[in-house]
Amino acid sequence: MYIPPFYNSKFVNEDGYLTGDQQIFIDTLISEMRSSLGSDGLEVPQQTTANINSIAASMPVKTLMFHDIDTNELKVIMNGVVKVIPVI
What is the pTM of this model? Predict the structure, then answer.
């Protein structure tokens, strides 16, 4: 999910309404949340095993979660290490 950057600027105008920058921030954030958080819960992105391993190598300090469509496993990348999350 993309979280837009928050700029520390004036939040509301003289009439008490959101400024343009803040309205864009909130609109973008809500749009991203709607696309990632459906009524059924969080949608975990799907990737191949090769892509997951490539992402782990290129982003060693991130924590990310994926559904491995090759193995049908839920995987998490933590500090550059790919781990399988057991699903009961």
Answer: 0.53
Q: Residue 81 phi/psi, 5° resolution?
A: -110, 130
56-83 per-position pLDDT tens digit: 888 777 788 889 999 999 999 888 889 9
Coil, strand or helix at 83? strand
Instruction: State the DSSP code for 39.
Output: T
CB 49 within 8 A of CB 75: no
Residue 62 CA: distances (Å) to CA of 48, 57, 71, 77: 18, 10, 22, 7
Instruction: Return phi, psi of residue 68, to 5°.
Output: -80, 110
Alpha carbon 33 to its chain's center: 9
